[in-house]
């Protein structure tokens, strides 16, 4: 145990003394989260909204002022027909169109309910979602305001149309994606490189000619990266909650447990790569090409898997990050628990055990 | 008692079965300072790696401290000390951290065996907070030796410890090895430098994976069969050419500022030789009996 701890401490020295490693470890996740995060929030700010007001009555004007006073929207009014609305979208600048029907106030007063149509450009799913959410909340707000002293409440129903991508498939939250990406990069690449570095520098030779069990070498090398990756998970979650206002809906404990599982999967992969390669460059290349690319392609983070050709969909099943991405997304955004995720968890667990077994089996206790 | 016993050890590499170690046998007594002397590529490192259980032999067997190098590799790994030819410590760790790490990995502490490394460690101690990568070649070797010694190994394997080290540090290093012998640690050391051979108790001269001779350095020198002459002239290159053309020549080669030569007739008249050389246009000719060195013996064995 003392040996193990000494080894782990040595690993921490390696990491903390190498500025480049540190930068990759901690600079990259933060930069990624912030870049992805602010690129998104900036888009929603000052979004061009086109208002087509057929009603031109009290209620529609009041609601419009409310929408216009929000810092998220720039309102432009135009009297367009339905077909002209589509044309306006194609010109590209506007993010959404709000349509008030002709008898808006009338309906509200007499039938106690009225409708508003919100049409968004759903090619950019996140933006479309956010705009609809904001608009809906403004409408609900207005509704509460006029309902204050009424026995029979007025109801305004926003009728939402997501143009171009009605099912909203694709990147829901980038945080789960970035999390998968960062953990993969840190755990796979860093472990692989750090073990291969011992081979390259010849220190592995000395370590082998010692009472230290080779298997322990592997575990001791992987352990610090597990710890550092968990620090990364924490940092990403803190950033997403406090900077990007993206709360974790489900259980944080479950999220950490699943993250730990995924980190171990990645560590096992890293160990496997390190066993099969002899130079740091090759280890890095394999980690990048063999791990990072498939994660970007097949996790569903950037490209919806459902839209892929069947063979690619099948391939996506063997990419561990796909399952992790689903798990994180479900916990963070949908707030699901383990009962809904046991299948994905089990798949990930199986992959981890398999990889660990294979790497431990193929670890060489001698030089070639 | 024999600490290391090697019997018909053979190692080949690759599909072409390139022979690196060819049927090598020798044994090293307990507490002995044994040198494997040979040029680069002679097979020294392969032998060391087999004895430290890092490589499997393709033939033959070997025992270290009575343990078989294939079957009992674990026992050997915990009892021997190994210092590879290439500097193999952690360059980003300080002297002290490296030493502490290796002490702990071997399940001991620096204090416990400090007496073993004291003589060496005091020389690098002033720099103990300096990272190993920033040390000079000589200091690196001293640190590596400390790390290999810290767990009180029964047998110490030093693979070319003085390659790339300045002459003063080399001399110091060998003095340290002589002192270690007093601690009853068996030491196997390999080196391509012939002048270091005389500092060993016994040496094995090795070339192309084969052992040419095993004996004490003194015996190897004493059994040199021919009369060795040291010859000097102002024109060195021409001197070698002329010597090659001498009818009675056995062997001749440059040796520092002299040429060393042996002749068929053990009683070659040095005076006649001087005349012969002058007749061939050489000036400043000087001929004398040379003191035989290990290098001369090695060259003799190669022919």
* N-to-C span of chain A: 29 Å
Mean pLDDT over the full residue set of chain B: 90
> Any idea what the CATH architecture of the largest domain in chain B is?
3-Layer(aba) Sandwich
- Derived from helix and strand composition plus strand pairing, the structural class of chain A reads alpha/beta
Membrane topology (chain A): Multi-pass membrane protein
Family (chain A): Belongs to the ABC-2 integral membrane protein family.
Protein name (chain A): Transport permease protein
InterPro entries (chain A): ABC-2_transporter_component, ABC2_TM, ABC2_TM_bact-type
Which key phrases capture this entry?
heterodimer, A: 368 residues, alpha/beta, abc type-2 transporter like fold, 5-stranded mixed sheet, 14 helices, 5 strands, elongated, B: 303 residues, Rossmann fold, Alpha-Beta Plaits, 2 domains, 6-stranded mixed sheet, 4-stranded antiparallel sheet, 10 helices, 14 strands, 33% helix, globular
Short account of what is shown:
Chain A: Residues 128-366 form the ABC transmembrane type-2 domain. The complex is a heterodimer of chains A (368) and B (303). With 368 residues, chain A is of the alpha/beta class.
């Amino acid at each position: 145990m003392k040996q193990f701890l000494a080894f782990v401490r040595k690993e921490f020295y390696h990491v903390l003394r190498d500025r480049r490693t540190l930068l990759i470890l901690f600079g990259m996740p933060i930069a990624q989260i912030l870049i992805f995060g602010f690129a998104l929030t900036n888009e929603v700010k000052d979004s061009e909204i086109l208002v087509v007001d057929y009603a031109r009555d009290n209620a529609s004007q009041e609601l419009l002022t409310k929408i216009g006073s929000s810092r998220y929207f720039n309102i432009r009014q135009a009297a367009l027909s339905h077909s002209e609305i589509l044309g306006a979208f194609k010109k590209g600048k506007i993010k959404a169109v709000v349509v008030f029907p002709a008898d808006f106030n009338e309906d509200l007063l007499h039938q106690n309910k009225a409708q508003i149509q919100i049409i968004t450009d759903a090619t950019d799913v996140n933006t479309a979602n956010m705009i609809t959410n904001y608009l809906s909340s403004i409408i609900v707000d207005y509704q509460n305001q006029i309902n204050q002293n009424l026995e029979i409440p007025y109801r305004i129903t926003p009728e939402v149309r997501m143009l171009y991508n009605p099912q909203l498939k694709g990147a829901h939250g980038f945080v789960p994606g970035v999390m998968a990406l960062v953990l993969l990069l840190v755990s796979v690449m860093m472990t692989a490189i750090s073990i291969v570095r011992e081979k390259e520098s010849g220190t592995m030779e000395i370590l082998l000619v010692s009472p230290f069990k080779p298997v322990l070498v592997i575990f001791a090398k992987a352990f610090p990266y597990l710890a550092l990756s968990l620090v990364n998970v924490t940092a990403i979650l803190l950033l997403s909650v406090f900077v990007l206002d993206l709360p974790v809906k489900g259980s944080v404990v479950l999220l950490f447990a699943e993250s730990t599982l995924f980190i171990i999967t990645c560590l096992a992969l890293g160990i496997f790569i390190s066993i099969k390669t002899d130079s740091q460059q090759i280890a890095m290349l394999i980690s990048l090409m063999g791990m990072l690319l498939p994660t970007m392609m097949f996790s569903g983070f950037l490209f919806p898997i459902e839209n892929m050709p069947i063979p690619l969909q099948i391939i996506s099943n063997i990419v561990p990050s796909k399952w992790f991405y689903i798990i994180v997304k479900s916990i963070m955004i949908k707030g699901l628990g383990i009962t809904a995720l046991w299948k994905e968890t089990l798949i990930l667990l199986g992959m981890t055990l398999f990889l660990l077994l294979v790497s431990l089996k193929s670890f060489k206790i001698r030089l070639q | 008692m024999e600490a290391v016993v090697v019997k018909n050890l053979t190692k080949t590499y690759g599909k072409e079965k390139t022979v690196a170690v060819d049927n090598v046998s020798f044994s090293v007594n307990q507490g002995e300072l044994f040198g494997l002397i040979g040029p680069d590529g002679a097979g020294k490192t392969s032998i060391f790696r087999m004895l430290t259980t890092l490589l499997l032999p393709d033939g033959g067997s070997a025992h270290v401290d009575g343990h078989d190098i294939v079957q009992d590799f674990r026992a050997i790994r915990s009892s021997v000390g190994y210092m590879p030819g290439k500097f193999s410590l952690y360059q980003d760790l300080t002297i002290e951290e490296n030493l502490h790490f290796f002490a702990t990995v071997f399940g001991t502490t620096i204090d416990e065996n400090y007496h073993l490394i004291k003589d060496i460690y005091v020389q690098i101690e002033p720099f103990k907070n300096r990272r190993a990568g920033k040390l000079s070649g000589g200091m690196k070797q001293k640190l590596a030796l400390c790390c290999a010694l810290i767990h009180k190994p029964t047998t110490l394997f030093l693979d070319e410890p003085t390659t790339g080290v300045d002459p003063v540090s080399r001399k110091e290093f060998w003095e340290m090895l002589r002192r270690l012998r007093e601690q009853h640690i068996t030491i196997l050391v390999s080196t391509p430098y012939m002048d270091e051979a005389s500092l060993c108790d016994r040496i094995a001269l090795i070339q192309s994976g084969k052992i040419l001779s095993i004996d004490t350095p003194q015996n190897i020198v004493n059994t040199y069969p021919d009369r060795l002459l040291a010859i000097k002239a102002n024109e060195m290159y021409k001197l070698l050419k002329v010597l090659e053309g001498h009818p009675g020549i056995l062997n001749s080669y440059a040796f520092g500022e002299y040429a060393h030569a042996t002749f068929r007739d053990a009683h070659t008249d040095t005076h006649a030789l001087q005349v012969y050389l002058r007749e061939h246009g050489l000036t400043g000719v000087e001929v004398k009996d040379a003191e035989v060195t290990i290098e001369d013996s090695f060259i003799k064995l190669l022919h």
